Amino acid sequence: MRTEAAKRVELVFSLFDANGNGVIDSDDFDLMTGRVLEAAVASDAGAKEAIRQAFRQWWTTLATELDANGDGVVTLDEFRPFVLDPQRFGPTVSQFAEALSALGDPDGDGLIERPLFLSLMTAIGFEEANIHALFDAFGPDAEDRITVATWATGIEDYYAPDLAGIPGDRLVGAPAV
């Protein structure tokens, strides 16, 4: 696994541990889902249900694939070596990428404006400066928008163990001062 991917794994674990208790469990995904849905006030019921299902699938996949001792929690040691395995997590990542990027486009025009992108990514737990750096790396248009497809691809790339120098690497950088 590339160094950049290892850094992404550490950050993802800390975000998935939404309640900060040092392990990932189903309560973390309930908490994160609630925060994201609160930020997605303009989205329709279908988009909201899709993100609920995507978060449920994340937990189901993690619990099935990584909870080695069956205790109902995933530790960092269980998480670290396997979470970027495309064979195990590719479909889950794709489902999540599609649901989250669609949630960012409540008017259905195929474009995501920076303020909603910022709100959704903040709800997940990313640092604001890093979110702006990511959005800028996606190459927004003159009206400060990115395409749904750009974000979905960026999410999938974030979980790829062999990629480096991708826009998503900006999420693990130190926040600008």
Report on the structure:
The chain is mainly alpha-helical and 177 residues long. It has 8 helices and 2 strands, in the order H-H-H-H-H-E-H-H-E-H. The chain has a two-stranded antiparallel sheet. Helix 3 packs antiparallel against helix 5, helix 5 runs antiparallel to helix 8 and helix 6 crosses helix 7. The chain starts with a helix and ends in a 19-residue tail after the last helix.
Nearest-integer average pLDDT:
91
Question: How would you spell out the order of helices and strands?
Answer: HHHHHEHHEH
How is the quaternary structure best described? single chain
Q: What is the distance, rounded to the nearest whole angstrom, between the alpha carbons of the first and last residues?
A: 30 Å
Let me know the largest β-sheet. 2 strands, antiparallel
- Across the major sheet, the strand order is 1-2
- Secondary structure tally, helices: 8
Judged by helices, strands and strand pairing, the structural class is mainly alpha
Describe the structure concisely for a colleague:
The protein has 177 residues and is mostly helical. The protein contains 8 helices and 2 strands, in the order αααααβααβα.
Provide the descriptors you would attach to this structure in a database record:
177 residues, mainly alpha, two-stranded antiparallel sheet, 8 helices, 3% strand
Note the topology.
Layout: H1 3-16, H2 26-39, H3 45-66, H4 76-79, H5 86-103, E1 111-113, H6 114-124, H7 128-137, E2 145-147, H8 148-158
Antiparallel strand pairs: 1-2
Helix pairs in contact: 2-3, 2-6, 3-5, 5-8, 6-7
